[in-house]
Amino acid sequence: MRRRQEDLHGFDVMTAMDFAVTRAREGWENGYDEIEFLHGASDVHERVEDGRGRIKWGLRELLDGGQLDRWVSRDRSWPKAGSLVLALKRNPRPRSERWSAAPRRAHQH
Predict the structure, then answer these.
(1) Per-residue pLDDT tens over the stretch 17-72
(2) Which of 35, 61, 66, 78 is close enough to 27 for a disulfide, judged by CB 3.0 to 4.6 Å?
(3) Which residues contact 65 (CB under 8 A, 6 or more apart)?
(4) CA triplet 28, 108, 53: central angle to 5 degrees?
């Protein structure tokens, strides 16, 4: 199984969402099976408007809202307390592996 893990700590919310979409697409293009996004906030159990947990709930909205459906199987993906695992759809013709550079983090984690 080909799997990649990305740590989203330190990104602002919009950058984290854009990066997650980019990585989901690139993971599918590269023929990966899963991508896990580490978001933390494992103790945040409800949607928040400010502070900790916004990336966690933003990722879940991307998945549940279908914005990743082109590359991701919602049925096989699952949220964990501190991360989100995306099960990528099978790509019948993956490209040679390459990944774009990660965006700059808003703050150190």
Answers:
(1) 999 999 999 999 999 999 999 998 666 566 656 666 688 989 999 999 999 999 99
(2) 35
(3) none
(4) 65
Which amino acid is residue 75, in one-letter code? D
Q: Please calculate the CA angle 9-73-86 and round it to the nearest 5 degrees.
A: 20
Q: HSE (CB half, 13 Å, CA atoms) of 108?
A: 0
Render the burial of 51-78: b for 16+ CB within 10 Å, e for the rest. eebbbbbbbeebbeeeebeebbeeeebe
Three-class DSSP labels, 50-74: CCCCHHHHHHHHHHHCCCCCCCEEE
* CA pair distance 33, 2, nearest whole angstrom: 5
What is the rounded CA–CA span in Å between residue 54 and residue 68?
18
Q: At 99, which amino acid appears?
A: W
Q: What's the predicted TM-score (pTM) here?
A: 0.90
